[in-house]
Amino acid sequence: MYPHRQHCNSCRFQRFDRLKNMLTIKDLTLAHLTIGATPAQTIDAAAVAGFGATGIRICGRRPGDAFATPVLNNPATIVALRNQAADLGVRLSNVSGYQFYPETRIEDVEPVIDATAELGVPILVANSFDPDASRFIDTFSAYCELAEKARIRVALEFLPYSGIRTLQAAWQVIQASNSSQAGLLLDALHLARSGATPEHIRIVPAERVVFAQLCDANAWSGDMTDEALLQEARGARLPAGEGVLPLFQFLDELPADCEIEYEVARQDMRDKTPSEKASVAAADATHFMAQYHARKHEAGAR
To answer: Boundaries of each Xylose isomerase-like TIM barrel domain copy (predicted)?
Structure first.
């Protein structure tokens, strides 16, 4: 049912070589959801914790939502964020802007593309909460066309509680968009909760995997409702290696040069400062990647 991407020996060695050098936190990206703070606070926290890059949210989830630090149509804030990141040596990896709902128009989301371009960020994350697949594909295609003109890649993220619930559905949207630059954001939690396994990643050509998000989770119990899935994703993830998700296999299936973003939003950290959250995430991520490296080294030595 699923076509398999070829994994040649040279590709496997490339992945191993990359991971040999991925034992410092500088090689990982901090997800904005891990921090739950303003863009400026997120950049500061990433620098304090030693992350080499970070993603930032620059507006609410819906057009018109309140946002603590207005970024859209705010040139002074955009310049300040860009300079802050440069001064601290933190690369701005990706931007999360408005999500797509039935009422979302392309005119609503154009400012997100403009701000992302002005920030110099190369990736925009997109999520759909529009139940009409045909309508979303039309809007998404227009969005990708505008982003491509601004030299920005759009990374569509499927969420099992959204309008695009599975890897297969997300890949079909990418194909239907006719955009050469659009691709997928692969989240280890969403992949597992949608019923897929890491091997299913092979349906997506390597060049269409824009980046991946790493976290862990408990075994699921109770009813798998949209609300329960959303609450877990936004506040009940586990540090990598402390749950049941097949994360070693997940990393094995990613393209050799795939960017890894650490996204672990935890309710038990909600009272901590952004820098404290980032520092704990950095320690957890480094520990897990060391385990993964040791496992790869052991396998290579056999």
So the answer is: 46-255
Residue 297: count of CB within 10 angstroms of its CB: 12
Pure H helices in the chain: 9-20, 32-35, 39-49, 75-88, 106-119, 133-149, 167-177, 188-193, 226-235, 247-253, 274-301
86: number of Cβ within 10 Å: 12
User: What is the pLDDT, as a whole number, of residue 25?
Assistant: 83
Q: Is 300 exposed, middle or buried (0-12, 13-18, 19+ CB in 10 A)?
A: exposed
- pLDDT tens profile 185-214: 999 999 999 999 999 999 999 999 999 999
pLDDT at 3: 44
Q: What is the structure's pLDDT at 219?
A: 96
CATH entry 3.40.980.10 includes domain 9-301: no
What is the full DSSP assignment across 157-208?
Answer: E--TTSSS-SHHHHHHHHHHHT-SS-EEEEEHHHHHHTT--GGGGGGS-GGG
